[in-house]
Amino acid sequence: MAKVILKKGAGRSLKAGGSWIYDNEIDCVDGAFEDGDIVHVADFDGYPLGVGFINSKSVIAIRMLSRDADTVVDDSFIERRVRDAWEYRKAAVDTSSCRVIFGEADFLPGLVIDKFEDVLVAESLALGIDKLKPLIIDKLRSVLAEDGIIIRGVYERSDAKVREKEGLARSKGFIGPEFDTRVTITENGVRYIVNVADGQKTGFFLDQKYNRLAVQRFCKDADILDCFTHTGSFALNAACAGARSVLGVDASDVGIAQARENAQLNGWSDRVSFEEADIFDFLPAQEEKGIQYDVVILDPPAFTKSRDTIKKAVKGYREINLRGMKLVRDRGYLATCSCSHFMDTELFLRTVQEAARGAHVKLRMVESRQQAPDHPVLMDGSENSFYLKFFIFQVIRER
Predict the structure, then answer these.
(1) Whether the Cβ atoms of residue 138 and residue 131 lie closer than 8 Å to each other
(2) CB count, 10 Å around CB of 47?
(3) Statement: residue 399 has pLDDT above 80
(4) What separation in angstroms does the CA of 219 have from each of 133, 242, 299, 344?
(5) DSSP element (H, E) containing 83
(6) What pLDDT, on the 0 to 100 scale, is given for residue 383?
(7) pLDDT at position 45, please?
(8) Quick check: helix, strand or coil at residue 269?
(9) Is residue 339 annotated as a catalytic residue, yes or no?
(10) What distance in Å separates the CA atoms of residue 88 and residue 237, rounded to the nearest whole number?
(11) Which of 25, 59, 80, 370 could disulfide-pair with 10, CB 3.0 to 4.6 Å?
(12) How are beta strands 328-338 and 361-370 bridged, if at all?
């Protein structure tokens, strides 16, 4: 293998526990390589730092696979990584549908694999892991089969734009034989049809699983508003908990159609309705009509995917939270979240507090949560795997 030598003083993130080496941290490469190859990594003085895969086309030039310089990335190494990831999920979450591989947090950087019952959906974001992907999927099938789980199909959703930064084309389609891509899953007692081919990301947002369950306990005999409902997941959890009425709102006609189908699948169409609308228009219109709810849920998409647009994102989060609070009855509840990595917890809470002042309400924090355990946060100093902030507040009118 070729050996990558870092510049003196470089690799601070790596030495703090991270797994990335940037192109401007490399002094030289000793030996020939092709992009995507496994390479040895050494500090400026020759001290071995481990092995990873290299891509000269990417700003993230190397993604580390192991800190052991003697590591051989072969079948047994991949099987060990996959088995460790699965054993952790079995201990931490309901595995009927879950994220089985979560990139750097499972020491397989750039790869996400979600399991929806007996279907796998893979998303590869780096060239090196793309080369290893067939072996990883093969090993995952074998490990799952040991627990009696026979995977009937694998679908690839490597269609994120970020792949272009790796010099990779966006890719989508079957890995192996074709199958019905509409998969029925059950989560928290709610049934959903997940479209792994055409749904957002890998088809369904598994990271909110236990946050949806946490909201259930406030929903019995209550009127619920679920904003950015997507395919109706929070709305249907509210109905499952015995809500009196539930309204889910989203700007996507495709999402709303799927949400209605999911409501019908569970037999809750009499209590759950969905409306296609822009939330930024919908919330002020509800306020003008004087409509209020016992629980308002705000689950927006990431308003920022870079540091450059943080100010605009803060404005958006402040607006929807202010408007949402105004629609909550006195002593009712607001569930609000941000899935943007760049909107850190401190900034998000400060933004929500500013919204509360604007809405002339007091907030009593009931619960602070994050992404489900199958999306683990690796405490490596980079915070790359920590992105979802979720809070439940009681909304109290000032008197």
Answers:
(1) no
(2) 9
(3) no
(4) 42, 7, 16, 28
(5) helix 75-92
(6) 54
(7) 96
(8) coil
(9) yes
(10) 26
(11) 25
(12) unpaired
Q: What is the pLDDT of residue 200?
A: 84
- 77 vs 99: CA distance, rounded Å: 20
Q: Which stretch of DSSP H or E encloses residue 65?
A: strand 60-66
DSSP string, 108-162: -TTEEEEEETTEEEEEE-SHHHHHHHHHHHHHHHHHHHTTT----EEEEEE--GG
Give the distance, in angstroms, between the CA of residue 165 and the centroid of all CA atoms in the same chain.
20
43: left (phi over 0), alpha (psi -120 to 50) or beta: beta
Closest alpha carbon to 327 in 352, 298, 350 = 298
With a cut of 70, say whether residue 65 has pLDDT above it: yes
CA dihedral 124, 126, 130, 131 (to 10 degrees): -170
Q: Is the pLDDT of residue 225 over 60?
A: yes
In terms of Cα–Cα distance, which of 65, 46, 58, 74 is closest to 111? 65
Element (H, E) at 264: helix 253-266
Please give the pLDDT value at position 176: 95
**Across 371-395, average pLDDT:** 88
What pLDDT is attached to residue 201? 86
* Average pLDDT of the chain, as a whole number: 95
**pTM value > 0.90:** yes
pLDDT category at 385 given cuts 50, 70, 90 is: confident
Q: What is the secondary structure of 17-32 as a DSSP string?
A: T--EEEGGGEEEEES-
Which listed residue (98, 227, 240, 339) is catalytic? 339
Handedness of CA 386, 258, 210, 318 (dihedral sign): positive
First to last CA, the chain: 70
How far apart, in whole angstroms, are the C-alpha atoms of residue 145 and residue 41?
A: 36
**How do residues 256-306 score in pLDDT, each as one tens digit?**
999 999 999 999 999 999 999 999 999 999 999 999 999 999 999 888 777
Taking CB atoms within 8 Å and a gap of at least 24, the contacts of 51-55 are: 51/1, 52/19, 52/21, 52/109, 52/128, 53/126, 53/127, 53/128, 53/129, 53/131, 53/132, 54/2, 54/4, 54/29, 54/128, 55/126, 55/127, 55/128, 55/166, 55/167
Give the pLDDT confidence score for residue 302 in this predicted structure.
85
Strand partners, 195: 182
Residue 169: how many CB atoms within 10 A of its CB? 9
The number of residues in the chain equals 399
